[in-house]
Amino acid sequence: QMAGAPSQATKVLAPLVAVGMAGCFYWFAEPRLRSALAPTVPARLYGEAEFQVAPSFQGSRPGWVFKTDHRGVGYYCDKEE
Fold first, then answer.
1. Confidence at residue 24, expressed as pLDDT on a 0 to 100 scale
2. Most buried by CB count within 10 Å: which residue of 30, 62, 66, 80?
C-alpha cells in the first residue's frame, strides 16, 4: 500500500533533518576525509642505491628495513644520511 500524503510536520522536519545530517558530516567526517585523501610527503626520499624491490618480506637484512614507501614495496636502507 502507498502511504498517504506527507503531513505538514514531515514537510517541515525532513529539510531540518537533512541540514542536521549535512552539518554533522561537515563538522565530524569532512576533516577526516580530507586528511585521508591528502597526498602524503615521505619523511625521507631514498635514492636508487638505497632501495631494493621485493614484492614480499624475504627475511631480515642487516642495515635494511622492509616497508612500503615512495619507491614501492621492498627493502630500504636503514642508515641516516
1. 83
2. 66
